Amino acid sequence: MIIDIQPDKACTQFKGVFRVCQPHWRKTQKGADFMVTNLVDVTGGMTAYGWEGKYDGPRDLIDLERVEIVATSRTFNGATICDIMSMERSGGGNPLDLIPCTFMLNRDLVPRLSKIIDNLEIPAIRAFVGEVMNDDKLFLPFLQVPASGRHHHSEPTGLLRHSVECATMVAKMLELHGHERDLAIVAALLHDIGKIKCFDSLGKRTVSGYVLDHDMLTLELLAPHLAGLDESWPDGGVALRYLLTWRSGKRKMSVPLLTVAEAIACADRLSSGLDHKEQIFSDAPEWRRFARISANTLYWRPRWEMNC
Ligand SMILES: [Fe+2]
């Protein structure tokens, strides 16, 4: 990882899997091509060069692509940089280690996400989540977009914060172990992943966000990975689809077919309500006790001073 590459004036060779941030090619004063990029992972970033005649690798890299490299570090102007000798596109590495530091996530979110995943017990569910996180088209936007336009968790990366909160609450609510608990935790973690199509990385609502139901998009986006779960655990695939769509689905019933669905709905309401309330009162004067958001939503901030 980037943090393990020690500053050293002597040349130190290292290899590893990183992401390339904004790779582009330039020319030296003598007209030779060279590539400049920032190698990033969750621990930090490092400027990296690929020199014509010395660099062996693809020239058409895209931003945040995963690569495996062999490089030599050196110190330049007080910073540790490196020269890349070889580079290959990669599907490897731990997706949590490869979260770009440039995403500026809250410091505790990645460890909390890691803990949720580490505590899953059912191999088929763990494999499913691993596949989702290895899918850069899903996982990278999942880390970047807000959970809503202005109601709750509306900051960039808000969707991850809301998802981690929901999954953590569900894990705490359900003391049982095993299949149904793991399904509920994963459903809570991914219940809003359809929102990656509703917002861009700057938090602006997309056309899909205005027109489509995000639960429908959640199923669509997870479909390739649900198909994999169907292979290893057919009822698990159906159950996860049910938990992701229970509230908006055609078979909406007052009592869900899987009781753990209640925990997901409750965690979703708690997480969004608490954040919304905090957001509303953060700008309000101290004396204000009530805040009305809409005709049906009124929040109360009690006084905590006691007489004894
Ligand atoms: Fe939600």
Account of the 3D structure:
With 308 residues, this protein is of the alpha+beta class. It folds into two domains: 2-89, Nucleic acid-binding proteins (OB fold (Dihydrolipoamide Acetyltransferase, E2P), Beta Barrel); 104-281. The protein is built from nine helices and seven strands. The strands form two sheets. Strands 1-2-3-5-4 form a five-stranded mixed β-barrel. Strands 6-7 form a two-stranded antiparallel sheet. Helix 2 crosses helix 7 and helix 4 (158-173) packs antiparallel against helix 5 (179-190). The longest helix has 23 residues, at 260-282. The radius of gyration is 23 Å and the shape is globular. The relative contact order is 0.09. The model has no long low-confidence stretch (mean pLDDT 91). Residues 162, 191-192, 268, 272 line the site of fe (ii) ion.
